[in-house]
């Protein structure tokens, strides 16, 4: 990682990596809400995924192949949502002091303290709000097929969070998945304006944001 820091000429001060953990709120209760155990997404969302698949198969009587296809489409769709959210929402460029505070709270804190284990996944309150928004979008767009598509989308989110945690806290594997480590660490330590995909580099290749 050190070579990335030394080589960097494009990291603004508010995204420059440091060791340790930040304090966002002086209020202890609010501060607690900004910290999340990395297994929280799996604990919350895996039961939802399981129930929706069960509902699709046993209540809506979808064929297994239909459920599998919609589920896989949902997982794939998450990779695009992940890229777009990371690039255009998490990395919006603040122009005011309030903008800097908002940017720091939603993502800048992770760039300043990239190895803080309690700020590697989205707090439940925020992720549940986003999940509800996406659910209603899919329900409106796909009708009852959302019951099979949405759990795939959520599974994509779980995979993203687990991948993100692994990249920051485990050594890269000695196989092709090693590229994900290199790709994301370039985003942190060399080029925060590139490499927005975490669970997949596909959309960086398509949109020309590969380092």
Automatic annotation (TrEMBL):
Is the Cell inner membrane keyword given for this protein? no
For this UniProt entry, the molecular function terms from Gene Ontology, in alphabetical order, are:
fatty acid 2-hydroxylase activity; iron ion binding
| InterPro entries noted in UniProt | Fatty_acid_hydroxylase, Scs7
Protein topology in the membrane: Multi-pass membrane protein
Q: Which GO terms describe its cellular component?
A: membrane
A GO biological process held by the record: fatty acid biosynthetic process
Localization annotation? Endoplasmic reticulum membrane
Cytoplasm as UniProt keyword: no
Enumerate the cofactors the protein uses: Zn(2+)
Provide the alphabetized UniProt keywords.
Endoplasmic reticulum, Fatty acid biosynthesis, Fatty acid metabolism, Lipid biosynthesis, Lipid metabolism, Membrane, Metal-binding, Oxidoreductase, Transmembrane, Transmembrane helix, Zinc
- The record lists the membrane-crossing segments as none
- PANTHER family named among the record's database cross-references: FATTY ACID 2-HYDROXYLASE, FATTY ACID HYDROXYLASE
Query: Per its record, how is this protein called by name?
Result: Fatty acid hydroxylase superfamily protein
Q: Which species does this protein come from? A: Kryptobacter tengchongensis
Origin organism lineage: Bacteria, Pseudomonadati, Candidatus Kryptoniota, Candidatus Kryptobacter
């Amino acid at each position: 990682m050190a070579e990335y820091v030394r080589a960097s000429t494009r990291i603004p001060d508010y995204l420059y990596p440091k060791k340790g953990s930040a304090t966002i709120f002086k209020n202890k209760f609010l501060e607690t809400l900004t910290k999340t155990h990395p297994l929280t997404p799996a604990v919350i969302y895996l039961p939802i995924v399981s129930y929706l698949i069960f509902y699709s198969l046993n209540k809506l009587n979808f064929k297994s192949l239909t459920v599998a296809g919609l589920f896989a489409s949902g997982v794939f769709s998450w990779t695009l949502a992940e890229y777009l959210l990371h690039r255009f929402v998490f990395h919006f460029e603040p122009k005011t002091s309030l903008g800097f505070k908002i940017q720091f709270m939603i993502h800048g804190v992770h760039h300043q303290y990239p190895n803080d284990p309690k700020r590697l996944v989205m707090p439940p309150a925020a992720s549940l709000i986003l999940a509800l928004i996406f659910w209603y979008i899919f329900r409106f767009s796909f009708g009852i097929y959302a019951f099979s598509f949405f759990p795939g989308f959520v599974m994509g989110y779980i995979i993203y969070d687990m991948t993100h945690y692994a990249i920051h806290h485990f050594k890269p594997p000695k196989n092709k998945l090693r590229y994900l480590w290199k790709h994301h660490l370039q985003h942190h330590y060399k080029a925060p304006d590139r490499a927005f995909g975490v669970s997949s580099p596909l959309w960086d290749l398509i949109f020309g944001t590969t380092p």
